[in-house]
Records
---
Amino acid sequence: MKFTKLQGLGNDFIVVGGEERLPEHAAELAVRLCDRNFGIGADGLVFVLPSDIADYTMRIINADGSEAEQCGNAIRCVAKYVYDNALVDRNRTELTIETKGAGAQPVQLTLGDDGRVVQVRVDMGEPVLEGRLVPTTIDGNPVKDYPIEAEGRQFRFTAVSMGNPHCVIFVDDAAEFDLHTWGPKLETHPYFPRRANVEFVTVRSRSHAEMRVWERGAGPTLACGTGACATLVAAVLAGQTERTATVSLKGGDLLIEWNERNNRIYMTGPAEIVFTGEVPGNVLAKAGAR
Ligand SMILES: N[C@@H](CCC[C@H](N)C(=O)O)C(=O)O
């Protein structure tokens, strides 16, 4: 099985094309290949598949084998993968990528001097403040600045779905926050029926927020695109930023815009190829995939 390793702000993915459908043993493969000691190492395994409603479909399996509905950094990587490998007409710099949680998402490509993709602007769709992925049982209302307790410590959170679930918490200093202690406790808090990605955020100015993330199914990652979108939504709802702001993550910056007219979120950031390779048959067999 041929693969390409890509990364978006250090959020890294093993991208596999050429399959007709999601392999039966995708979860086992993800666990094995994403392992940073015994595998290739990545935050997720991404399959680029045919689509009836878009140029391609993306399916993402987290490093723990769970499937995510959506992934902002991976969609930029997939856009680069299909364009740079000429899997779409090279005259087109506007494509659509279907995701499980957010339908067909339009992406705009910016090309470098070498004609390859350097940056991608993604229409991430509308944020959802209540629904199946975020807790609606609390007073029957969208959950904004609501108390949540983990092992005796009190936080306040805003729940946002970007197709996948997010728990956004404002803290005094996101860069110094003890992610490893509180991230896993909040990821699995009973408020979140399908677990959650947890963002710890400090607003630095009306156009800049700093964020650290504990991702569902992957733990501490260097960046989370959907988490940056959820962060901006929570910050705007709290009256702390404008509707366009830079979100700084450990791996770099994303520009996020929440359009007032159409309620959609736009995310702009880079994507890079790291290397290509091939997983040998005996390794696939160990994961039950051959
Ligand atoms: N890193 C991602 C989100 C990946 C999926 C996430 N771990 C989940 O389970 O929802 C991003 O860039 O959005």
---
Amino acid sequence: MYKLVLIRHGESEWNKANLFTGWMDADLSDKGIQEALHAGRLLKEEQFVFDVAYTSYLKRAIKTLDYVLEEMDLLWILVYKTWRLNERHYGALQGLSKTTTAEKYGEEQVKLWRRSYDVLPPALTKDDDRNPRYDVKYRDIDDALIPLTESLKETVVRVREYWDKEISPQIKAGKKVIIAAHGNSLRALIKFLDNLSSEEIIDVNVPTGTPLVYTLDDQLHPIAKYYLGSEQHIESKIQEVAKPDKIME
Ligand SMILES: O=C(O)[C@@H](CO)OP(=O)(O)O
């Protein structure tokens, strides 16, 4: 049996402003920092210890991991960063307000872009400044792998490749692992870990800055999972992410 902890970054400045974020490198808000510190304290209280951590190339996840590890006095452990754990690429929606986009295209369309499994948001054009190709972080990544938009389906493919090749062998070797990533890259991971259908994943929303603890069997199939913290607090945070009226605020 193994334990695995997943954590979505704390609230970002762009979550707060209700903007489509994707691969844009938004920083944590003050609330997001507090969420990350609180998550670290909870993990410490519950006597979790980690040997290896994984995160994305985006600062909201990297900093969340750092705050968590700092609270746990584990800043020294091995941390792997990968673009494969980045948020789902939101294409040309990145940087737009979810409110204004819903007013323009309708709430239904925005819901499809946000939560359907295989609907692609409009793609960036190659010459768009937001093309990751122009960002030094991605200079070593093959052109063919750099997305200009993604549905959750594509995100699942890249997260799964990394899981199979890098993360699952470490867990099977007995390393205690924490993954700090994003709402949709974690939904991708949860989809294949829990073997959810493309319909079932629609209703899964991951709250910010809240550790999700999995117990896995020898084949890494989940036996149990729970969020750390008070049930009421977690439920209100999940509703906050899912809330369609957040779009219309
Ligand atoms: O904007 C984004 O990148 C994501 C996560 O914050 O938003 P959503 O919940 O709409 O997929």
